[in-house]
Amino acid sequence: MTYAPRITDESVISRWMGIELKAINRGIAKERKQLSALLDEAEPSSITKTGEPYKFRKEIITGLGEKLPRDMHRRLKLPVLFYCTPDVPGSCWCSDIAAFETLQILGEINPLRTLEGGKFWVSRAIVFAILRKYPTAFQIVLGP
Predict the structure, then answer these.
(1) Where are the alpha helices (DSSP H) in the chain?
(2) pLDDT digits (tens, 9 = 90+) for 3-12
(3) Residue 5 forms part of a structural domain
């Protein structure tokens, strides 16, 4: 006789957490666009993973366009995605080199910071401050 797994079994909890994380992350932009393209749009937008419109705040896009050098306009893709995983509870990582350089230009991260293994790590507190300062231009992806 076989028994169904108990709700407290690790496999059940892991599966349930995966389902919940997918639901949380469904608002993440599926299509990341160059800043230059977004600057040309009257109403800058993209599409989420579920096919819903993802609208950028025009004043944030315009502000980034004014603060960043022209060559960065074509290199930077928005929204920038920070990844948070449960195995590193106090930090998030990003593997976008243009985002790394952008945050240094904007003064949001130290210019002495370096990439490690193609990623840069930022404390969650700093990431949340960046999200508040540049809403819609940055997103957090949760999960492993």
Answers:
(1) 10-24, 35-40, 58-67, 70-75, 97-105, 124-133
(2) 676 766 677 7
(3) no
Which amino acid is present at 99?
A
Q: How many helices (H) and strands (E) does the chain have?
A: 6, 8
2 occurs within a structural domain: no
The pLDDT of residue 23 is 77
Range of the domain at 16: 10-142
Question: What is the per-residue pLDDT across 103-112, written as a single tens digit (0 to 9) for each?
Answer: 999 999 999 9
Buried residues in 80-111 as b, exposed as e (16+ CB within 10 A): bbbbbeeeeeebbbbebebbbbbbebeebbee
Tell me the pLDDT tens digit for each residue of 100-140: 999 999 999 999 999 999 999 999 999 999 999 999 999 99
Structural domains counted in the chain: 1
User: Residue 138 in contact with residue 96, Cβ under 8 Å?
Assistant: no
**Does any domain span residue 1?**
no
**How far apart are alpha carbons 82 and 50 in whole angstroms?**
19
